[in-house]
Amino acid sequence: MSEDWKKYRDKIIGLGENSSRKSYYPELQDKISELETSKENLLTIINSMSDALFIHDTAGKILLMNNKARHLYQIEEDEIDQVNVSNLICDQDNYNRIHLIWENAIQGESDIFELISVSAKDMEEIPVQVSINSTTWNGEKVLVAVVRDFRERKKYEEELIAAKKKAEENDRLKSAFLANISHEIRTPMNGILGFAELLKQSDLTGEQMENYIQIIETCGFRMLNIINDLMDISKIESGIMTVTLNDLKINEVFDYIYDLFKPEADKKGIRLIKNTDIPIVICTDKEKLIAVLTNLLKNAIKFCHAGSIEFGYTTQEQSILFFVKDTGIGISKEKIEHVFERFIRGDHEMSPKYEGTGLGLSIAKGYVDMLGGEIWVDSELGRGSQFYFTLPLRRK
Ligand code: ADP
After folding, report:
1. What is the pTM of this model?
2. Are 53 and 66 in contact (CB under 8 A)?
3. Ligand 1 atom 14: residue of nearest CA
4. Could you tell me if residue 384 is left (phi over 0), alpha (psi between -120 and 50 degrees) or otherwise beta?
5. C-beta of 339 in contact with ligand 1 (< 6 A)
6. I need a labelling partner for 267 at 20 to 30 A (CA). Which of 27, 42, 273, 382 fits?
7. Which atom of ligand 1 is nearest to the CA of 357?
8. How many angstroms separate the alpha carbon of residue 198 from the centre of ligand 1?
């Protein structure tokens, strides 16, 4: 019961708790108590609503609001007069739209619409659904707005949209991967079958035979690599890939990698530079470290056509930092954040110029993660790429 009403009632009618004239108006007193009780009940009902409720005029002046509305829009009891419903509407476009809806509602056209509203204090944006109707209040036509907080629902909606996008992207990647993998398998397979057929000829010279066998061997290795990559990624993803830690002389690994890639780099006219720090022994999984370096160097050679490739490591306090830097084609801004995802291939995705399954970097990331390190890349299109990864400097 408002203080004003209490004063009015006590003074004029003499019905105050301690009024001596109370007993003169028993019927009136009963009527007023009844009305007061029914008002209290009404307030209890609107305050127990889970939606916010505003009763306001067409200028946005608030005549009544429930607890949920106060709580949602951070309006204190004594601030009702300072806040206008228009202040809770997010932007000018919405403002015009809603004023039109109010006018229509006054003419009897109720409406339900969604809106981004803002709280009165911290201006937090609150997506809501508003149902608007008109009623008569003290003889005037006013508006009744029931406002439902849509924040949770919007969050779910956004999650659903993101999940749908991801599912569509996965589907696209799967199709691209299947098309790509069939190409990747078919090419060496055709090589094997084609040159095996040629080998059947009886008039081949020794040199020709050796040449054909060499091609069949190369194609065989290429197929084996694809199958190994597929098996590795599925083992990583299903969590059955194990780690075998042993003391490892890092310099020896780098010598091995250098010898492995030097002929290929020479063939492409690229300078291969090994830049290692002081010799060091760390406890890690040799095969996985070699696989990571091999994947990075294979890519560096594949995507570099001139200049140099520098690879090496530097020791840091807690970890060892490995790097593979090339002066190759680089990676675009759009692709760079996705290159470690499986089946992702660069902007040349559809170009037969660069063979690949889009698995090398995801395998490298999978291994680095398993070994307790991190992997990342800096790159600029046309200027080259720098791949880095760390491994913890732990000893057995
Ligand atoms: P693949 O090489 O089989 O396509 P990866 O997973 O090894 O798959 O690499 C994913 C993509 O990342 C490549 O297709 C390529 O676009 C890009 N990429 C990787 N390494 C380099 C590099 N050194 N220079 C330029 N692009 C690279």
Report:
1. 0.59
2. yes
3. 345
4. left
5. yes
6. 382
7. 3
8. 35
